[in-house]
């Protein structure tokens, strides 16, 4: 029987790259994102190329009812979820604290903290139900960030949401210990996905400047690492993994190419 991975935020960036990586390795996929049409295009392409099954679950992780309805109504033969990639998230704005937009703050908190929690709780309940004394009953991979380890100017609430992911990953690891569920936090640095275009609300030139003079991480780099974490023996768990490109040492120290 194929293994099953559930990926939130699968319509772009890390989530999309994870979908292809896990499919390449024979997993059946449960894919989430708000953009249903993107999920459909991906599902068609992946099923054709990798001969795996794809279940599309288009919902907004901010919507508590939608999350629990979707997860609780997963068809019975999809319920044995081996891996959750709890990845959906975003930054909105990069502004001084006193100038930042309250709606941006609300959306980041509702998505990166509350939505993250709804998905983790709903899926962990399915994993608990199949607890096994032999090996692992499931693996939850939470998408943190270097911004969840160290704050930076104008990072305020985005950083706070990722610090919350860090704290919750630690808590979940403790509380789910008795159920044999692995919890891994992945904390990437700058990666060239749709993240910055979303953060700067479609302002492509400003988004591009984030990566000036850098060879940033790619979504595929991060997906490879996430997949690797799931290949270790059942008794081994990577708890917390930070990864940056060679030219990034922290959230603020970069070695950009000289002409930038
Ligand atoms: P992208 O913008 O490329 O992808 C974000 C994904 O999240 C999309 O699939 C989007 O899908 C989904 N998403 C956003 N909001 C919601 C929502 N409310 N409900 C469901 N899905 C949602 O960004 P990344 O791949 O870079 O980001 C993925 C995660 O990685 C985020 O948690 C981000 O904070 C984190 N991260 C990113 C880094 C980077 O530099 N890129 C570095 C460190 C961490 P849709 O719009 O279809 O809903
Ligand atoms: C995304 C990385 O440094 O832009 O989490 O906040 S950063």
- In total, the number of strands is 7
Cα distance spanning the termini: 51 Å
**Cofactors, ions, other ligands:** NADPH dihydro-nicotinamide-adenine-dinucleotide phosphate, 2-hydroxyethylsulfonic acid
Structural class: alpha/beta
The chain-level mean pLDDT equals 97
Query: What does the overall shape look like?
Result: globular
Based on the coordinates given, report the CATH architecture. 3-Layer(aba) Sandwich
Strand order of the largest sheet: 3-2-1-4-5-6-7
Instruction: Work out the helix count.
Output: 8
H/E element order: EHEHEHEHEHEHHHE
Task: List the SSEs and their pairings.
Elements: E1 4-7, H1 13-24, E2 28-33, H2 36-50, E3 54-58, H3 64-72, E4 83-86, H4 102-129, E5 138-143, H5 156-175, E6 181-188, H6 195-199, H7 204-209, H8 219-229, E7 240-243
Parallel strand pairs: 1-2, 1-4, 2-3, 4-5, 5-6, 6-7
Helix pairs in contact: 1-8, 3-4, 4-5
The structure holds NADPH dihydro-nicotinamide-adenine-dinucleotide phosphate (NDP) and 2-hydroxyethylsulfonic acid (8X3).
